Amino acid sequence: VMSMVVGIGVPARAQSDWGRIVLDREAQPPVEGTSIAMTLHQGKVHLVYAQANRLIYATNRSGGWKKQTMPGTSGVHSPSIALALDADGRPHVVYDSSNRVWFMKRDASGAWTPPEEVVPTGRQPAIALDRNGQPHVSYIGDQDRLGYAIGSGSPRVWQSWNLIVPSDTGRPPLVKSRSPIAIAGNRVVLAYAAWT
């Protein structure tokens, strides 16, 4: 049995000043481990975590903690999860399952969109939103190459690329861990660790 716990504190204070909130005393992790994504918006916490092979969204946005099973995520096994909030504080989530990358977001009514396949082959995604709210996703793609995708339009259409990044050896680098992604103005910034 595992508990899903949120620790809240001020880093400059002693360890004993940190608060502890138990969200789920009976959380059941997937067999391979637990993945958690968290971000803050206007002082409120937003979490997505895997429990019993599905994704759970939890937030204290309205004051007290509320949890919600994300529809369409049944059967998710040990995913890597990433979370970003748009300008209105609505969550956008990417996760991997069965070596595919998926995207979901919460709309203005509070409902989750159905899972959208970002790429048919990918893992360990990260997400950033541009000033128009369009999702940009980095991931490990085919043959451990750095992948990048953008979702645009309505309905959303995903375009993806395995990026060719120069290396000292002349061979494309192999990416073995999540590549953080950020948006700076009109530029997309990816950081990655690679083996050549």
The oligomeric state is: single chain
Radius of gyration: 17 Å
> What percentage of amino acids are in beta strands?
over 45%
Count of DSSP strands = 18
Largest sheet: 4 strands, antiparallel
What is the string of helix and strand elements?
EEEEEEEEEEEEEEEEEE
Numbering strands along the chain, what is their spatial order in the largest sheet? 3-4-5-6
Number of helices: 0
What is the approximate shape?
globular
Estimate the mean pLDDT confidence: 81
CA(first)-CA(last) distance:
41 Å
The residue ranges in which pLDDT falls below 50 over 5 or more consecutive positions are 29-33
Tell me the helix content.
Answer: under 10%
Task: Please identify the structural class as seen in this structure.
Answer: mainly beta
Word description of this protein:
This protein is mainly β and 196 residues long. The strands form six sheets. Strands 3-4-5-6 form a four-stranded antiparallel sheet, with no helix packed on it. A hairpin with a 5-residue loop joins strand 11 and strand 12. The N and C termini lie far apart (41 Å). 29% of the residues are buried.
